[in-house]
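for the record, two folds in this file. i put them one after another cuz i was lazy. first one right below, seq on top, structure tokens after. the second one comes after a little note so u can tell where it starts
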Amino acid sequence: MPLAPSVMRFLIRQSAPTATRIESLEPVAARQNFEFNTQRSCMPLHQLDTIEDVSIETRDGATLNARIYYPEQPCWAKPAPALLFFHAGGYIFGSIKTADWQCRMLAAKAQCAVVSVSYRLAPEYKFPYAVNDAQDALCWLHREAGSLAIDATRLAVGGESSGATLAAVCAVHARDLGIPLALQMLIYPALSASMDSETHRLYGKGYYLSFDTISWMQKNYLAHKSDYQDWRFAPLDGSKNAPTDWRNLAPTWIASAEFDPLSDEHASYTEKLRSHGNVVDLHVYEGMIHGFFSMGAIIPEAAVAHRDAARVLRDALQTQLEYAA
């Protein structure tokens, strides 16, 4: 399929000589640029009953900001299912603010609580800070669910781009801790340190997420050369500290984009999980590029993926309820 017309228009603007290249910026400036572009590309906000800001204490005594979106008034007698969500941004930028529209949309359409976490960012906090923060957030949510009017037996993890990678790692962590998950929702995750796949060669330049941008993110995020091979950075093929068992993971929904340089990784990860007996649904959105999910205002075709994500999440959490009953 060709690029969607809206995507083509976006890429033409991105290729203009005056367009900002993320990899040319210092991290603080990159964060400001990302927040500005997020505001331009998000859809009108869904109105929810309750939005609450909370704090999560990490293993090293730091405090993470988090936000809980409730589609209905919290009811401790009838706790809600919940999605733990990690924002995009290559581990360098992004926050609960930049993920606000997606979280509101998922809460409203899937009729579940959404817990959005601002994990610590590189280069100030290099790998594995983000991974540890994500795992600490999962344990916190499972432990504190009752006080938050959330059902600890109906949890899902998810995220977009780098946030989806964190969610994938959390799914393995949850299994090892005995935390039941109804779903891992992975929206075009980065799953390998390698950039030599066919789709990297085809779409690594001129399709928004470029080879140079990925290299810049890796350089800023990873602390040591050996981190490139750590499975918590590269769940697909990382060998360092890798789990010996990939069975019994939560059902997985992967949203991929046809013109994403990471799309071969999504197909390979699907095969890896399935080969160990896991249930995986890979959906490739034709004519789309990396990042399209959060660009609804400029890529209206993203609405299809929004509906799919909400449906899959709602169905998984409902199935978990029926299974528990």
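(here's the note) second protein begins now
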Amino acid sequence: MDPSVSYFVSERVGVDAALRPYRGVTLSGGGEYDIAQGWWGSAEGTLAYAAPNGRFSAAAAVRRYRPHFDLWTIWGAFAPVPYTAIDASLAVTPIRHLELRASVERYSFANAEAATPTVNVESDGWRFSWNAAYTLPPRWTVRGGYHAEFGPGASSRGFEGGVTYSPAEFLTVAVHGGMLDRPLELRFDESSVRMYGAYVQYRWSSQVRVELDASRYDEDRKRPDAAAFTWDQLRVSARVVFVFASRAELRGLPPAVLQMPRSPGSAP
């Protein structure tokens, strides 16, 4: 119900469940049904394992995503098709202070039942990534990674990495960089971006910290006409973060609250 006008904006019902048959093994899943539209919406199922020593974890999942629109919009009349994805992830700590992560996903869209006699468009794709982080106690951390995605309309691939140094408990300094290439399937202006920057965090106390970030973006758009342009820019940000509670102080809250997404850089 929209409280401002007392009108229905959606009619859905859903269910979620989690089963832990053995130590470290979790089987979870759920789905939703759109009563107003008369179709099944998004659903997912995951099988995950985490070793008791914390040095190994793996997960495999199947999910189906269908866009949802409020009843008062016209977008629902276009009957957006869902896509189904199968993905797997792995995290390993082979030696002390070294952490390796990898993930892969394959996805495909349902048949849109739209005729395109003059062009063939892909309806499936895949993506994968790997990341590595090595900590040199007590002050240094080196990380790097690669990701690639190939799918309908556009693809992307790129590297990222950085070095973090903590000269004192209250101060953290980091430099980071990355690159991204994005070939486009149906357009001329393919782009390449290079990014590099620095980050400083000062912890005034256990509940207050100040963060400064400056990053430079250099972009090149490959377009064979006068519309080609660059998107070079400098981004600078400053913020103050107040921590009202830590994870240990949140015990007893409902699981749905604890699983809410957090912004990058927020306290664990």
